[in-house]
Amino acid sequence: MYKVKIKPHWEISRDTEPPLDTAVLLALLTAIQETGSIANAAKQTGNSYRHAWGLLRDAERMFGHPLISTGRGRGSRLLPLAEKLIWADRRIAARLSPTLETLASELEGELSKTVSGQPQVIRLNASHGFAVAALLNQLNDRRLPVELRYRNSADAVAALARQECDLAGFHVPLGEFEDASVASYSHWLNKDKHCLIHLAVRNQGLMVAPGNPKNIAGLPDLSREGVLFVNRQTGSGTRMLLELMLSRQALSPTAIEGFETAEFTHSAIAAFIASGMADVGFGVQTAAHRFGLDFIPLVRERYFFAVSSAAMKDPLMQQVIAILQSASFRDIVNQLNGYDGSATGEILSLSEAFAGH
Question: What is the sign of the dihedral through the CA atoms of 124, 125, 126 and 129?
Answer without folding.
Answer: positive
